[in-house]
Amino acid sequence: MDFLVETSARHIHLTDAAIETLYGPGAKLEVKKMLSQPGQFACTNEKIKLCGPKGELMVSVLGPARKACQVELSFTDARALGLKDVPVRESGDVAGTPGIRLVGPAGELEIAEGCIIAKRHVHMTPADAAAFGVSNGQIVSVKVDTGKGRAVVFGDTVIRVSDKFALAMHIDTDECNAAAAFGEVRGEIVG
User: Fold this and answer.
1) C-beta atoms surrounding 106 within 10 Å
2) Where are the domains of the chain?
3) pLDDT at 123
4) Residue ranges in the chain modelled with pLDDT below 70
5) How far is CA 139 from CA 87, 120, 135, 142, in A?
């Protein structure tokens, strides 16, 4: 059995307060397109500029609003920004992570923490987990072979189970490039 492997490029999740600071009073995130995970969407709102010690990058905004701002980067992105010690973490685990300055069309905001490199993971429903014989939080290895001479086994991949998820693996752009995982790509648990 296999599943879709998607590349999650750098992006940001914002709180309601951050949305108003960056886009103006009363601003709301607007849906540009729905993403593979139910209820998640890319926004039509202008991108946000990340300003680090050594560089700047533009990032897309994903919705809906969250309880904490979270910037998801690759290691390459973190280096380009001049950020040090950006940890690999599961989504939502931002305590003690580096902060960064955010610049939007209507304002700026310095977040004290929130920059992570997202731990690669496979989203599953409880039924999917039962079919694959895995459980929430389990660490597995996933083989991705695109037939382009760059087959990779991604170890340390966490299984995330919720009835709010749809079956798909998420990797960042560095991982995508290493595996030549462009276009529609499938993965399978191998350990």
Assistant:
1) 14
2) 9-118, 121-189
3) 98
4) none
5) 17, 10, 9, 10
